[in-house]
Amino acid sequence: MKGTFVPIQESKRIVSIDVLRGLAILGIFLVNMPAFHSPLLYIDGAERWSEGWDGILYRFSDVAAQASFYPLFAFLFGFGAVILAIRSEEKGISFPILFTKRLGFLLVLGCIHAFFIWHGDILINYAVFGFAFLFFYKMKGRTLILLGSVCYVLPFAILGSLFLIMGIFDREGMEMTTDSAMMKQSLEVYQSGTFTEIMTQRALDWYMVNNPFNAIILFLSIFPFFLIGAGVAKQGFLQNINQYKRQLKAILIVSLLLGLPIKILPYVTVYHFGTIFVQDYFGGPLFTIFYITAIALLAEQAGDSRLFRPLSYIGRMSMSNYLFQSIVCTAIFYSYGLGLYGSVSYTTGFVFLLALFCLQMLLSLLWMSLYKYGPIEYLWRFVTYGKKPVMRR
Predict the structure, then answer these.
(1) In angstroms, rounded to a whole number, what is the distance separating the alpha carbons of residues 40 and 116?
(2) Spatial CA neighbour of 123 closest among 131, 114, 132
């Protein structure tokens, strides 16, 4: 190492990126909430919450949030990695070494989160897949965007077509099912099990999502957005919004016009695995693009206004807020807390989500008025740079 690396100054932060991180935390919370209070892994949510406000709010969340915010988080991960790489080169510091430290911290934190707090962790995947990014980050921006797009669209277009065709010839075989045995086990353990039993169930639930077969799908659905985010950062689209305003507006309109019909596809045609797959793997990312362009354009117009400040503060301590949601929700719904697992309606969970997120905005605002970093972000920087950042303002 030749230089001394310091975290990015506040005046040089990209407002839209902080706001997008905050929006991602809200969107991920919308997706995660029913899994916090119900055995969502083993049931069909649309069937369970099909009437009244439960049905309305479930479908709203499914259309607005499902499969749109994990890609957004991956996009931001790649975007931030390239900014770190550029600044590392300017300082004469090895980016692979810095990035490996960041990924190592993320992996340890993800393991603690997944196996001791909540099974629905995303940090482990981001950390493991992040090591592959070291082989690509030196590519040109346009190459990264093209490569990421092809690596995403090609496999999922093939799979989506196959599932839709299968749905035509074997509609019954493509219907969503409920795993009654695992649903019952999940309810019993999280409602009244010991902490050890909950840890065992948590590991089973984690493996249900992260088994070797699913790991391939997860990689193909996450890593391409690392590349796309990195490419966008290299091209400077979000750093120079005025220069690309016309293109961003066109992308916003196209992504919404294409994304919305695909997002509502299972509810206006046939509801089965094929249409849900297309909804998630194509409608989800199209809405991701819509959110990115919409926030970028709005943030550029509003600047550092009060309108976006609460979300930007959430975004600046996004990892702390992400873990805070898991800690609070498992404490409320699991047996070692209030034990409300399985007894909360979708509407009740939705209202609780809004209340907790409003509290997070307030706490983030208060915290960031006193400190420069969130508590987890502070530790992350300390591990990455090897020295204590200045915490107090």
Answers:
(1) 19
(2) 114
Q: Is 307 a member of any domain?
A: yes
Domain around 239: 10-76+140-375
Query: For the whole model, what pTM was predicted?
Result: 0.95
In a domain, 162, yes or no: yes
Q: Name residue, tokens 């897949």.
A: 129
DSSP string over 3-44: S---PPPGGG--HHHHHHHHHHHHHHHHHHHHHHHS-GGGS-
Which contacts qualify for 101-108: CB closer than 8 Å, 24 or more apart?
Answer: 101/383, 101/384, 102/130, 102/380, 102/383, 102/384, 103/127, 103/130, 103/131, 104/383, 105/379, 105/380, 105/383, 105/384, 106/130, 106/380
Task: Provide the 3-class DSSP secondary structure of residue 199.
Answer: helix
* Rounded-to-integer distance, Cα 59 and Cα 48, Å: 12
Structural domain contains residue 24: yes
Angle made by CA atoms 280, 34, 348, in degrees to the nearest 5: 130
Tell me, what's the pLDDT at 217? 97
Q: For the segment 93-142, what is each residue's pLDDT rounded down to a tens digit?
A: 999 999 999 999 999 999 999 999 999 999 999 999 999 999 999 999 99
- What's the chain's average pLDDT? 95
- 88 found inside a domain: no
Cross-strand bridge partners of residue 199: none
Specify the DSSP class assigned to residue 392: B
Task: Give the 3-state secondary structure of 269-284.
Answer: CCCCHHHHHHHHHHHH
Q: How many CA atoms lie within 13 A of 144 on its CB side?
A: 25
Cβ neighbours for 210, distance < 8 A, ≥ 6 positions apart: 124, 125, 218
pLDDT of residue 1: 42
Overall number of domains in the chain: 1
Quick check: 81 pLDDT over 70? yes
Q: What is the pLDDT of residue 256?
A: 98
Q: What are phi and psi of 392, to 5 degrees?
A: -80, 150
In tens, the pLDDT along 211-238 reads 999 999 999 999 999 999 999 999 999 9
Q: How far apart are CA 95 and CA 314, in angstroms?
A: 27
Q: Where are the beta strands (DSSP E) in the chain?
A: none
